[in-house]
Amino acid sequence: TLYGKIHMSVSYIDSDANTGVTNYEEVNVGSHSSRIGVKGSEDLGNGMKLGYLMEWSVGMDGGGDLGQRNRYVTLGGGFGTALFGKVDTPMKTLGRKVDLFGERAADTRTLTRATSAMDNRQNNVIAYVTPNLSGLSATLAYVTDVTSATGDNNDTDAFSANAIYSNGPLLIGGAYTQVAGETWDTATTKGKNERDYRLAGSYKMGAFKVVGSYTDTGSGGGVSKNDYSVWQLGGAFDFGSNTIKAQYSDKSEGVKKSKDGAAVWAIGFEHKMSKRTMVYVDYGMVNNDKGSAIAITPGYI
Hints:
By secondary structure, the chain is mainly beta. About 5% of the residues lie in helices and about 55% in strands.
């Protein structure tokens, strides 16, 4: 099966601290995780099935051609599914399910990707996905080499897992990650083990939907005492082919007295023109503490 998605925007960005540039004001054309992919499977008999997926990002704004996204081989059966390749971590998978502005400029990962390694897609993944048991499923993933280096003996492995219950209007889940400190070792600094915990959920009541999550990070990016949390709360209301929504995300200070906290908030309006086509208007803002310089970006890959 050949599949794909095109997601583009025209954005006006006004930033007082965009990568060190004062008073950045510009109109940007952005490509938000636009992609093309191929997937397929073969029935092996006895309830066994072999599958594959290969996906590439496409720079629809001209900012690069084809890039790597998820790509893996699966072996599935009554026991569940084994997976090998490059894939979103279970931590990221849970977060994507409750973000009302995912893959847009006000994505909650604007805050969680700042120093963490595990709210991302990773190479060298060996994973197991349980069968769905009345709405409950879990994923366990082991990353054999976070740095993807060759010719070294560094123990740069990682572990990520989630458990998600989804049944009718309710979704609730938890996730955990641990990244070996050697991932961030330098000639002068020895990295610390990073640990992340996440609780997330959503509930739909007729036309209303509420989402929320809480993520706690210890030694983010392998930096000693860089301990912080990110919480998020949002709501959406559907009427006809339209949706209005709002969301707020907040990151606490990490290293004591670093003043690197920040908050992201956004409001948006969507209109579905068909099952496959949607247009929207968003307004988002990042409020940085004195020691933080997180910026709104026009697109994600």
